[in-house]
């Protein structure tokens, strides 16, 4: 019997449609709760499952990372299949590995990457309705792309932070930001050392205003400099957002 | 007030996940029934809605065509928005136009095109679970592609026809057939003058057997020549199938 405690890291993919986000809350079903219960089923332990990102209700993940400490003697390589056998089909454990005891999914993260899908066609898509933001009016993708350069690099992103969030510093470094057209999809990708609360969705809401001609690309610089949330666009809806990578 | 009867053609997109297929049946919800009820809501008429293809439960459509005769005076260009306003989000009317009175969505069709998506990765995809067939074992896509040439052209496709279907002739002409890899997706496309019942799904089940090494590409020719359903592979599941085009 194994008595050494292990720190197990899970790589997780999920469809957030039917969940109230990652974080455990009362009276609603969440991803963290569902996986914690699955771990209990296979280990009989009540673990503290630490996620790298607290995704909101309706947001999806192609690569979420979470870790927990356990005394179980289940071999690490068997953990994904063991968990998948008790998890619903909209949550899949893609990988599991053992890390140093001081590894922490959130605090050890050195960067994150998100994708946001806008569906730009007169009529909405029945297939993509839970995986994109439908915008009927034609978007000027070139102008949207032009606005991205103002957001690249290290800035105070206060203008793109939802009120009510308590973080020490509003300064983040955007390492990569891009926009491409793929059929009716307009696909936005952003990578940074970290993100403020709702930062990706407020950036998307703002560049959509550029695409609709409500504001000019250069206005995005002014919004950033203002550090004023009221200057930026509305928060894009959650269902277009995908957490795609965590860097350590 | 308009008194001329019109023959209205609808172009429809739908997510088949929550429907028991196209065709009206007792005690279950179908696409045909849902659209017929929507037409009743906006016209107050009980129309006979004729679909080009009776898609099975769980099968999706990116381009289904259906027509109905009506005395309504709603302008044709306003019909999509009027119907979409009363339809659920998983059915969208993309277009409507007026046709000659003798146009019939099914009998007038000169060809159809389908796409089938296989998701080929060790773990299933939470996002694509209702839109693909998950196959864990690695598929040899090159060998699958090699087998397609035997299916191209005019043949008796009895071996790829579900039993119980009553059609006059089992001869069909496959005008285009292809397979490509797109990330974890293996995307099969087929166009023919028409299809026998479950023909696309039985072809996919058979070429997957080629991809898994259970049979050789040349065996597909033998299966075709046998005209025996028992020789072919199993019927691939419905959720990977998309009706993508009807030609007139």
UniProtKB/TrEMBL annotation, chains A, B:
GO terms for molecular function: RNA binding; tRNA pseudouridine(38-40) synthase activity. Keywords: Isomerase, tRNA processing. InterPro entries: PsdUridine_synth_cat_dom_sf, PsdUridine_synth_TruA, PsdUridine_synth_TruA_a/b_dom, PsdUridine_synth_TruA_C, TruA/RsuA/RluB/E/F_N. Residues 12-108, 149-248 form the Pseudouridine synthase I TruA alpha/beta domain. Substrate binds at residue 114. It catalyses: uridine(38/39/40) in tRNA = pseudouridine(38/39/40) in tRNA. The active site is at 56 (nucleophile). SUPFAM superfamilies: Pseudouridine synthase. One of its GO terms (biological process) is tRNA pseudouridine synthesis. It is an enzyme of class 5 (isomerase). Belongs to the tRNA pseudouridine synthase TruA family. PANTHER family: PSEUDOURIDYLATE SYNTHASE, TRNA PSEUDOURIDINE SYNTHASE-LIKE 1. NCBIfam families: hisT_truA (TIGR00071). Formation of pseudouridine at positions 38, 39 and 40 in the anticodon stem and loop of transfer RNAs. This is tRNA pseudouridine synthase A. It comes from Thermoanaerobacterium thermosaccharolyticum (strain ATCC 7956 / DSM 571 / NCIMB 9385 / NCA 3814 / NCTC 13789 / WDCM 00135 / 2032). The gene is truA.
